[in-house]
C-alpha cells in the first residue's frame, strides 16, 4: 500500500510540475519556492483523498499477526519435564479444565505440542471464540474466571500436557523466561482483541467480512475442505438466511470466489458499507 502511494505521489508531482512550469514562465517575479509550496499543499490534499478512498474498503487490521514461535518453544521446553500428559479420546474432545484444576489443587497450565484447540465461550451460546495451533501454552496468566468462561476443545489428533500454574511460574522464573512469556502474551492479547472486535458493535455484514478474512488466512489444504456457512455460523449468532444473502451479494459483486460452498479466494477488498 505504501509503495502504491509513493507511485501516486510521484505521478501527481510530475503532472503538477508540468502545469506549474508554464506558471513560472508567466510569473517570473514569483520565486519557484512559492510554487513548490503550492505543489506540496496540493499533493497533501490529493494524498488525503487517496487515503480516504482506500479506507472505504473493509480490511482486517489483524490479518498479519505473527506468533512468536521461538518464545513459545522455549517456554514449552522448560515446562514439559514437569508436565503430565492428558489422554484424549480419538478425534479430540473437551479438556475438562475444572477437573484438572481440582486434581492439581489450583489453576493449570496447558501445553499444546501437536494439533489445535478451539476456545468455546460458554456464556455466548457456544460461539467458537478462537482457535490455537501447536505449539501453544495456555494458563500462565489465567484466572478462575477465565477458566469458567471458556471451554477448551481439542481438535483431531492432539498432544496435550498440563502442570500446576504455581509450579509453571516457578520454572519460568528459574529459567529467566519472563521476557518470553510477556512477548507471547502480548500476541495472545492481540488475538483476543481480534476475536472480540469481530463481534462487538459489528453489523452482520461486518462480521461476515471479518470471518471471511479469517478463513482466507487458513492454509489452502484446510480452507478448501472447510464449508463457509458452518465456519461463519460457529463463530457468530448471524441468522443463516442473512449470512447466505450477504455471501451471495459478495459473490455476485465478484468480491469472493466461492465454489461448492468453499472459499477459493478473496478477489478484492470488501466495500466498507453494505
From TrEMBL:
Gene3D superfamilies: Jelly Rolls (2.60.120.10). InterPro entries: cNMP-bd_dom_sf, HTH_46, RmlC-like_jellyroll. Residues 205-271 form the IprA winged helix-turn-helix domain. SUPFAM superfamilies: cAMP-binding domain-like. Coiled coil: none annotated. Transmembrane segments: none annotated. Pfam families: HTH_46. This is IprA winged helix-turn-helix domain-containing protein.
Amino acid at each position: 500500500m505504501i509503495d502504491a502511494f509513493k507511485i501516486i505521489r510521484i505521478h501527481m508531482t510530475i503532472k503538477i510540475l508540468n502545469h506549474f512550469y508554464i506558471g513560472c514562465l508567466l510569473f517570473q517575479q514569483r520565486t519557484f519556492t512559492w510554487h513548490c509550496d503550492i505543489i506540496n499543499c496540493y499533493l497533501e490534499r490529493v494524498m488525503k483523498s487517496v487515503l480516504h478512498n482506500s479506507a472505504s474498503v473493509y480490511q482486517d487490521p489483524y490479518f498479519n499477526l505473527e506468533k512468536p514461535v521461538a518464545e513459545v518453544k522455549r517456554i514449552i521446553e522448560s515446562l514439559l519435564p514437569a508436565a503430565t500428559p492428558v489422554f484424549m479420546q480419538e478425534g479430540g474432545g473437551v479438556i475438562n479444565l475444572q477437573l484438572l484444576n481440582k486434581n492439581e489443587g489450583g489453576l493449570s497450565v496447558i501445553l499444546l505440542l501437536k494439533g489445535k484447540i478451539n476456545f468455546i465461550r460458554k456464556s455466548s451460546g457456544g460461539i467458537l471464540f478462537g482457535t490455537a495451533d501447536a505449539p501453544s501454552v495456555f494458563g500462565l496468566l489465567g484466572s478462575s474466571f477465565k477458566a469458567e468462561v471458556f471451554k477448551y476443545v481439542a481438535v483431531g489428533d492432539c498432544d496435550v500436557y498440563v502442570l500446576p500454574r504455581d509450579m509453571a511460574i516457578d520454572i519460568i522464573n528459574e529459567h529467566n523466561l519472563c521476557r518470553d512469556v510477556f512477548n507471547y502474551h502480548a500476541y495472545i492479547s492481540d488475538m483476543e482483541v481480534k476475536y472480540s472486535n469481530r463481534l462487538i458493535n459489528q453489523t452482520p455484514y461486518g462480521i461476515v467480512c471479518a470471518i471471511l478474512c479469517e478463513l482466507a488466512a487458513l492454509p489452502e489444504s484446510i480452507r478448501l475442505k472447510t464449508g463457509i456457512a458452518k465456519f461463519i455460523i460457529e463463530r457468530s449468532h448471524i441468522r443463516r438466511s442473512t449470512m447466505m444473502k450477504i455471501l451471495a451479494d459478495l459473490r455476485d459483486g465478484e468480491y469472493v470466489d466461492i465454489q461448492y460452498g468453499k472459499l477459493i479466494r478473496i478477489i478484492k477488498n470488501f466495500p466498507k458499507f453494505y
